[in-house]
Amino acid sequence: MREFLAAPVLAQGADNEHRTISLILFALFVAVTLYITIWASRQNKTAADYYAGGRSFSAFQNGLAIGGDYMSAASFLGIAGLFALSGYDGFLYSIGFLVAWLVALLLVAEMLRNSGRFTMADVLAFRMRQRPVRAAAGISTIVVSIFYLLAQMVGAGALVSLLLGTEGEAAKIWTIVVVGALMIFYVTVGGMKGTTWVQIVKAVMLMSGALVMTIWVLSKYSFNLSTLLDAAADKSGKGDAFLQPGLRYGATDMWSKLDLLSLGLALVLGTAGLPHILIRFYTVPTAQAARKSVNWAIGIIGAFYLMTLVIGFGAAALVGSDAIRKANPGGNTAAPQLAEELGGGAGSTGGAVFLAVIAAVAFATILAVVAGLTLASSSSFAHDLFANVFKRGKATERDEVRMARIAALIIGAIAIVLSIFARGLNVAFLVALAFAVAASANLPTLLFSLFWKRFNTRGAVWGIYGGLISAVVLVLLSPVAWGGASETKPGVKLAAEKAADCGVPADSKAVGNPDALFSCTTKAPIPLENPGLISIPVGFIAAALGTITAGRRPEDDGLYAELEVRALTGTGAH
Amino acid sequence: MTADTSGPGSTGAGNGPIENGVYLQLSESPEFKRLRHAFRRFVFPMTAAFLIWYLLYVVLSAYARDFMNTKVVGQINVALVFGLLQFLSTFLIAWAYERYSSRKLEPMGEAVRAVAPGAALLETGAPEAPEAPATPGAPAEKAPAAEETAAEETGAEEAGAKETAAGPSKDEPSKDEPSKAEPSKGEPKGELPDEEEGK
């Protein structure tokens, strides 16, 4: 972490110039979004306005907002960086993120829109006993959202200070506080309507920024992909291996291959279980519009990931892996560095301007995603836990919305405090964990709810807790938490400071993951970093076992008939 | 606790024995069975197909690297082509489903709604009965100032107002729906995806 901050940051010469422009652009984005939020707040009258933006967005608007909610800084900067440093392996991530949308399109979006109201739990609890199922679904919603939120906010702290070229811990803490305060404001004041517009603005900025960079890069290689790949492979110093799978997920033992499968499964099955994505389907008037908005999102997200391929390889070819790794070992600055290079290089005005533009896009990206996550968790807290578990369905809409605002404030505050404490940790694994929990706890119950007549309360509760607990426990037993070197995680070369942190000599080969949470010398009991391969089947099996062991109630058939008719035809939809 | 399902305004669930009876009857109707069959016939095999196709890609990336590394043309190897085909297949499936859904499933859904024995009863069954109509939250006082908004935004405002105005009875969601749908249907952008997605 330290060498990462002390490294010469981006363009030393143009530092001040780009920092000023960046700050102006940040301020401009904040001003525009604050105005939108206040405008939106004047229109928020009912609970449907607050939770679902009045269900009045068009399919195209919602498609953009889904893109804005989904494409995090991790996808933009992280995947571009992965391409730039590890070559082809970036594709394994982006393809999983995209294909996952087919699960949402075919199995979830329309039926959820037709049968639910404000949260994921509306559908899970539709034909179940309300309190146990809503409690489980609410907890799982909040856990998934907070994991994701922490990863984004800790990342934001490091990233914005990196992009602005400010050093030291104070800058990081301030960034986390400012991002957190803005996100609380968007959500409490603007509700879903305000948050959606922030996401739409961000999606347009992100797509435009990416498009300009893509065309610019391709134009340097006369629009020939093969020439670009050639240049990237050449400059990377790794030759053809750079264009082949395996540089990052390269170890050849059994567990690392299973780990790759595990990651792939969690990515493809997780998206349709992410609560902040699911509640976006409620913001359109009909199921038809929900379907069309997912189609727009697939087009937008697919185009975006194709562009990150060009941007990442472009960064490898034009900036070079060494320069990228020097600025940030994780490669997170590959896209901004490429922007600077395209604009005319370090020290030039063009370079400073384009770098500042891309930094502002990254900033907007972070804000839009954290706002969506805060909204999802506070909605679920108010609508599921408060109104239906504590008040047993007797809360008024007004109380519920007030509670949602209070919850957004509290969850936001907790996220800020946790992020400040976690700022020195490597929390990137939390994104993968959020996907794994969504795929293991939420997706099985959601699919069984919609498609399995016999499914019942016990099945839903077992499925959610089974998937949630197994995913979290597996990660706590994995190399993410225990960093000792093993066959799967061979010992790494340690920086002097890391070695001191771990309490081993600098030439020790006993440490496989120096960023491990608990210990960097103890070997992990479970060699899988990604829990999905085990926890997803656990979620499905627990849900099935719970269902089979519980008795049948005659009234359940009627409730399933109602759910099925409503989900497929839209009768009685909200 | 079992009675929770009928709690007013708690969810969309449980409209009580009468409506459940209607839904049971409806779910047994030939029209609905046809819709369910047509829906499942498309989405289940398609889901199996794209999951297998995707897992094949991941498995080959992990276990068949020699094959994936074969060069096809220039610097383009099998792995890259395979990856790009995943994008293509995703776009194509989305496009195919949009087509299937708008041409086949939607008319079938309308047929079910048309034969609903107690259609009127079903609609009144919509359990969204806000106890506090027109919740005058703090922001609402400023509502008049919202005139500065653009066309689509006024549409949004209308829809919001409608929801409030529908008040406690909100008796005809089916009438309400189409008018709310206007902002999306009326907007040319909203109709494009079926043609655009294939690209």
From TrEMBL, chain A:
<dbReference type="GO" id="GO:0006847">
    <property type="term" value="P:plasma membrane acetate transport"/>
</dbReference>
<keyword id="KW-0769">Symport</keyword>
<feature type="transmembrane region" description="Helical">
    <location>
        <begin position="352"/>
        <end position="382"/>
    </location>
</feature>
<keyword id="KW-0812">Transmembrane</keyword>
<feature type="transmembrane region" description="Helical">
    <location>
        <begin position="171"/>
        <end position="188"/>
    </location>
</feature>
<dbReference type="GO" id="GO:0005886">
    <property type="term" value="C:plasma membrane"/>
</dbReference>
<keyword id="KW-0813">Transport</keyword>
<feature type="transmembrane region" description="Helical">
    <location>
        <begin position="428"/>
        <end position="452"/>
    </location>
</feature>
<feature type="transmembrane region" description="Helical">
    <location>
        <begin position="403"/>
        <end position="422"/>
    </location>
</feature>
<dbReference type="InterPro" id="IPR050277">
    <property type="entry name" value="Sodium:Solute_Symporter"/>
</dbReference>
<feature type="transmembrane region" description="Helical">
    <location>
        <begin position="294"/>
        <end position="319"/>
    </location>
</feature>
<feature type="transmembrane region" description="Helical">
    <location>
        <begin position="62"/>
        <end position="85"/>
    </location>
</feature>
<dbReference type="InterPro" id="IPR038377">
    <property type="entry name" value="Na/Glc_symporter_sf"/>
</dbReference>
<comment type="similarity">
    <text>Belongs to the sodium:solute symporter (SSF) (TC 2.A.21) family.</text>
</comment>
<dbReference type="InterPro" id="IPR001734">
    <property type="entry name" value="Na/solute_symporter"/>
</dbReference>
<dbReference type="Pfam" id="PF00474">
    <property type="entry name" value="SSF"/>
</dbReference>
<feature type="transmembrane region" description="Helical">
    <location>
        <begin position="133"/>
        <end position="151"/>
    </location>
</feature>
<feature type="transmembrane region" description="Helical">
    <location>
        <begin position="200"/>
        <end position="219"/>
    </location>
</feature>
<feature type="transmembrane region" description="Helical">
    <location>
        <begin position="20"/>
        <end position="41"/>
    </location>
</feature>
<dbReference type="GO" id="GO:0015293">
    <property type="term" value="F:symporter activity"/>
</dbReference>
<feature type="transmembrane region" description="Helical">
    <location>
        <begin position="260"/>
        <end position="282"/>
    </location>
</feature>
<protein>
    <submittedName>
        <fullName>Cation acetate symporter</fullName>
    </submittedName>
</protein>
<feature type="transmembrane region" description="Helical">
    <location>
        <begin position="91"/>
        <end position="112"/>
    </location>
</feature>
<keyword id="KW-0472">Membrane</keyword>
<dbReference type="GO" id="GO:0015123">
    <property type="term" value="F:acetate transmembrane transporter activity"/>
</dbReference>
<keyword id="KW-1133">Transmembrane helix</keyword>
<keyword id="KW-1003">Cell membrane</keyword>
<feature type="transmembrane region" description="Helical">
    <location>
        <begin position="459"/>
        <end position="482"/>
    </location>
</feature>
